[in-house]
Amino acid sequence: MGYFRQNIAMDLGSSNVYVAVERKGIAVREPSVVAVREKEGEVVAIGRAAKEMVGKTDSEISTVYPIRNGVISEYTITMNMISYFLDHAIKNPIKRILRPDVIVAIPCEITSVEKRAVERALKEAGAGRIFFVDSPLAAAVGAQLDISAPNGKMVVDIGGGITDIAVISFDGIVASCSVNVGGIAFDEAIKNYFKREYKMVIGDATAEKIKIQNACAYRDIRITPFEVSATDLQSRMPVERQVRPDELIKPLSEAILPILDGIRTVLEKTPPELASDIFERGIVLTGGGALLEGLDVLINKATGINVVIADKAQECVVAGAMKIFRSMTNDRKNEMMSK
Ligand SMILES: Nc1ncnc2c1ncn2[C@@H]1O[C@H](COP(=O)(O)OP(=O)(O)OP(=O)(O)O)[C@@H](O)[C@H]1O
Ligand SMILES: [Mg+2]
């Protein structure tokens, strides 16, 4: 039966879920959103279809991001979402019934209660054996870093809700910290700026679009003015306004400040020999939040260390988790299960 059992890697993020299937690659790349009919608790849509509905539904339907800051905040909704994505990833019903083994990436500073909730949700959704891997370790492997080498590497995984910062050497995390800041906080900073400065209200989707298409975190990187359509705070009438990208640098860099503090804290905790490796080799950024224009430059200016954005930054965690899973021997798996 083991032969038919599928091996799965999962990255359950605050913004997106990624599922990779062994020998097939990434099978699911979907927003971690669920639309629910309030009264009955009935699930109306999951993933991309649910994200389309954010901010557009009537009062009967609400859209929920059931994972917040990298951990489960709505248990049943998360379980339904995982089950739905597993159905998508494993098309063969026999393989689905046989319960796939799953490796799941978790933030560095997750509590044992939060970890047990992930385990229970996966089990209830139809997973077999469950293995955990720290997100930054998986991110480093996905970014093609040689984690087993005895030199220091710093990975900063900037997601939607959480930033995991870690120094890795000899297959292990030497120093780390998690900061509850990511792309969602950048969206909030943009929304707040428009409200404060122009008395304009913009929705979550518009803020995210501005962040991706127009904003930047450092000067002179994006300069073309752009048009924003919004609602006037007082009159509630539609308004339009030309905005310069550099206006957003200050609010965005304020939102990024906790990440810079986190990097400094981790560097301070890093033994000097490994810290000098990082100064030589640079910092690797992964996660969707890392794609904010100019964020790499801002981190470079703030730390004096070279910064590189990993290839396919958003997929590094799931790709690395799968690579780690494939390299685990059966003895190692059994040893992990008995812990
Ligand atoms: N090109 C881009 N520029 C700026 N931000 C981007 C870009 N592409 C994606 N993002 C942002 O990346 C974030 C999602 O990244 P990712 O998928 O790594 O998060 P996640 O793993 O779901 O969250 P977490 O790890 O915090 O639980 C979102 O806030 C999204 O707006
Ligand atoms: Mg993530």
Task: Describe the model.
The two termini are 24 Å apart. It is built from twelve helices and 18 strands. With 339 residues, the chain is an alpha+beta fold. Strand 11 and strand 12 (163-169) form a beta hairpin. The chain has three domains: 7-137 and 317-337, ATPase, nucleotide binding domain (Nucleotidyltransferase, domain 5), CATH 3.30.420; 152-181 and 257-314, Nucleotidyltransferase, domain 5 (2-Layer Sandwich); 183-251, ATPase, substrate binding domain, subdomain 4 (Actin, Chain A, domain 4). It binds adenosine-5'-triphosphate and magnesium ion. Magnesium ion is lined by residues 11, 13, 159, 287, 317.
Topology diagram in text:
Blueprint: E1 7-12, E2 16-21, E3 25-31, E4 34-37, E5 42-46, H1 48-53, E6 61-64, E7 67-68, E8 71-72, H2 75-89, H3 93-97, E9 101-106, H4 112-124, E10 130-134, H5 135-142, E11 153-158, E12 163-169, E13 172-179, H6 183-198, E14 200-201, H7 204-213, E15 226-232, E16 238-243, H8 249-269, H9 272-281, E17 283-286, H10 295-303, E18 307-309, H11 316-327, H12 330-337
Parallel strand pairs: 1-9, 9-10, 11-17, 17-18
Antiparallel strand pairs: 1-2, 2-3, 4-5, 4-6, 7-8, 11-12, 12-13, 14-15, 15-16
Instruction: Write down the CATH topology of the largest domain.
Output: Nucleotidyltransferase, domain 5
Mean pLDDT: 95
The span between the termini is 24 Å
Number of strands: 18
Oligomer: single chain
- In total, how many domains does the architecture comprise? 3
Shape: flat
Tell me the radius of gyration: 21 Å
Q: Hetero groups bound?
A: adenosine-5'-triphosphate, magnesium ion
Class by SSE composition: alpha+beta
Q: What can be said about the biggest beta sheet? A: 5 strands, mixed
| CATH-defined superfamily of the largest domain | ATPase, nucleotide binding domain
Helicity level, as a percent range?
25-40%
Query: What share of residues are in beta strands?
Result: 25-35%
Low-confidence stretches: none
Provide the CATH architecture of the largest domain. 2-Layer Sandwich
Strand order of the largest sheet: 3-2-1-9-10
Question: Could you spell the SSE succession in H and E letters?
Answer: EEEEEHEEEHHEHEHEEEHEHEEHHEHEHH
What is the CATH top level name of the largest domain? Answer: Alpha Beta
